[in-house]
Design a protein that fits this description.
single chain, eight-stranded mixed β-sheet, Acetyltransferase, antibiotic resistance, transferase
Length: about 180
């Protein structure tokens, strides 16, 4: 268990969680906001993207009331991202994070805000993060509102930054500064 906050807990991804990821990432309602409806995952694709990789991404399952409801990952941004985001001269410890709630019945209940706030606190207190960044697509207003409630600020428009449903979409670079 990485951390626990009220009914929310975050733990490391385990092999047994592959079927959960396949379920969530084949749901068109979830895919509309994460990965794209034209990019459904089966178990093989889940293993390629989430398990068979050697990088510094820490992959986790989000639980609420001991029920797995979503996914979150975090990582120190690399030099390519520092260049893209304009942080080449910034000596700060900078983490990136990505998340989604895969059980849509848990949407719009404040759990996303609790999750983002909790992960920010964890990254600052346990990992020494000076800044935390994300790059949501500009049209994803619900997610952006959640992040802004958690103290993130829009920093920079990233034109045509992410392929989503067949086209490159604009994203906002948003940051939380400790």
């Amino acid at each position: 268990m990485l951390f626990h906050n009220d009914k929310l807990s975050v733990r490391l991804l385990e092999l047994k969680d592959g079927s959960l990821l396949a379920k969530w990432l084949s749901d068109p309602v979830v895919l509309e906001f994460y990965e794209g409806r034209d990019n459904a995952f089966d178990l093989e694709k889940v293993h390629e993207k989430f398990y068979d990789r050697e990088n510094e991404v820490v992959r986790c399952i989000v639980e609420f009331d001991n029920i797995p409801i979503g996914y979150i990952q975090y990582y120190q941004i690399d030099n390519d991202e520092r260049n893209l985001y304009g942080y080449t001269e910034v000596p700060d410890v900078i983490y990136g994070m990505d998340q989604f709630i895969g059980e849509v019945t848990y949407w719009n209940n404040g759990i996303g805000t609790l999750l983002v706030n909790s992960m920010v606190e964890f990254l600052v207190e346990q990992n020494g993060a000076d800044r935390i960044v994300m790059d949501p697509q500009t049209w994803n207003e619900r997610a952006i509102r959640c992040y802004e409630k958690c103290g993130f600020k829009k920093v920079k428009l990233l034109p045509k930054n992410e392929l989503h449903e067949g086209e490159y979409r604009d994203c906002w670079l948003i940051e939380y500064i400790n």
